[in-house]
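Go through this chain for my students:
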Amino acid sequence: MNHAPDPEPVAPQTVRDLLAPLVARGLAGAAPTRAQALAVLRTSDDDLLDVVAAAGRVRRHRFGRRVRLNYLVNLRSGLCPEDCTYCSQRLGSTTPVLTYSWLSTQDAVAAARAGIEGGARRVCLVASGRGPSDRDVARVSAMVDGIKREHPDVEVCACLGLLRTGQAERLAAAGADAYNHNLNTSEATYADICTTHEYTDRVETVERARGAGLSPCSGLIAGMGESDEDLVDVAFALRDLGADSVPVNFLVPFDGTPLAGTWDLTPQRCLRILAMVRFVCPTAELRLAAGREVHLRSLQPLALEIVSSIFLGDYLTSEGQAAHADLELLADGRFEIEGAPGGAGAVLDEPGAGAAARDGGAPSVETGGPAVTARRRGPGTTVAPNA
């Protein structure tokens, strides 16, 4: 992707004129114009708090102070045949990630249980690979059933790659609530980050999931060298697809991948991206996802004014901050954790047993920016999960 020069920032008076109609549209569930969405990304740091406050009004109108916690379970890690440039599990990756085949149903249910006990109300079952075989769908269906038997009120989202005809229906019949498949970037630049499948394949999978009655979960990755126009394009594409859950990831540039050393984001840029997506998708569950710790850093609390959902604990191949720190962050902001007793600002009394567990040997992958720690706990290990 060619990184265009930064455009001139929007003038302060223009920012004030921009935000009022954006809030009005958002409160009505309407999308901004493309020009308005681009303008949000081009506001200056001096106007950042005004932008966050405006996006926060839209967030609170729909979700109040509620935050939903999500928990990832990596069912099968590494050895993916796809060549997505951002992914540490890609074909040819030399990143020292955990590599293992399918977890057993028992282990998958136990991993999900740890996240649920830590406060998660949605469990995301993820497996590397191009897409599932019918045997894989049967395997994951058994895991979904096992989780639902223990925790009928918890949502289960599957993320297994590209779906073939009938597979979404089988997952729905097993009790899955949602299916995740991210668009990641704009259609115009998708070939720059992947050559083993096409953007239209991803769109088709989201449509298949929605057609089977699964909640369509689809999002993006920022920080891969994309332009403002690319970010706006993918945000509008997600709205057009009817994605009601939109995870926003920030590139974790692992060594061993083609995008190693790519640190194009600042905390301020991340907040503007989140605000833009909130205005484009005002009714969606906007989820703060991978990379938040290393890119937003101390500005994570401001991001929570815009999003309504975060991942608890670790990600697929990288470690997040300690789960108890996530809960304390929410309590300090007086957010209401969905499903937690005690109302606004409540922190669960008993985070999972692995809240601060570390094996002491997790390698820090040097990337030229903040240290990224490859996951060495939770599924695929004998170390307690970060939940």
Notes: The mean pLDDT is 91. The two ends are 36 Å apart (CA to CA).
